[in-house]
Amino acid sequence: MAVAALDFACHGVHAAGFHEVYAAESEEEDEDEPEKNSTYGLDSIVEGVFISQNTQTEVEKLGTSFEVVLVGQRMGRRELASELDFSDQGAREVEKLQDKSIGISEEQLPMSDEDYNTLLKIVEAEAGGEDMKGKILVANVIFNRVKSPQFPSTVTDVVWENVAGSPQFSPTADGRIYTVTVSEETREAVNRAIDGEDYSQGALFFVEEAYADKGNVAWFKKDLKFLFKYGVHDFYTYP
User: Fold this and answer.
1) Are residues 176 and 230 in the same domain?
2) Concatenated DSSP letters for 20-89?
3) Domain Cell wall hydrolase SleB: where (predicted)?
4) N or C: which end of the chain has fewer CB within 10 A?
5) pLDDT exceeds cutoff 90 at 158
6) CA pair distance 173, 171, nearest whole angstrom
7) What was the pLDDT predicted at 87?
């Protein structure tokens, strides 16, 4: 009986000890549990995406807000859905944007690096002493020719066109196009003309009468329509 009681007491002590230790471990694990389950940085973004795909509730914040990553600004899911509205109103807005984009693209002329460099040089050679508007006007005339079916379709071909042995732009004949140094003002003028700044009234020709061949000046006045004079140049088009 004494031995049995002692054995029972020992088992009771061991059992109590075991449960006490286990309980302590459980409390420590519970305290650590949030630490193990928390997600940070990229993991939180991924978790946020998965959660947002599997719930209809609005996700307010998960670690580093995945709304910021996805749309560039803080926006709830319902707000984001409204931004992606493809109703009739949305379709009309898209159509307006497409029309505007097409209009812009049609106004812009395709130009290679060679075209751009040629344009800079011919504007400098023809209007290096003119003001900004005078320079833009020379670029305008070249663009008008590119758009016209009566002239070549690229800037380089327009500038270097030779009709029956007669060059269209004198700097290509006397070599000035090779020797000019393009100024920053000329570069700005060309860029502004490329962007659509146009004072030309559709002019296809210009001439500096004081230095032009008299026969050419007579042809201008007889066969072309005078538009206006600006700086040293007279501007003409076909009648």
Assistant:
1) yes
2) HHHHHHHHHHHHHHHHHH---HHHHHHHHHHHHHT-SSPP---SS-HHHHHHSS---HHHHHHHT--SHH
3) 129-236
4) N
5) yes
6) 5
7) 56
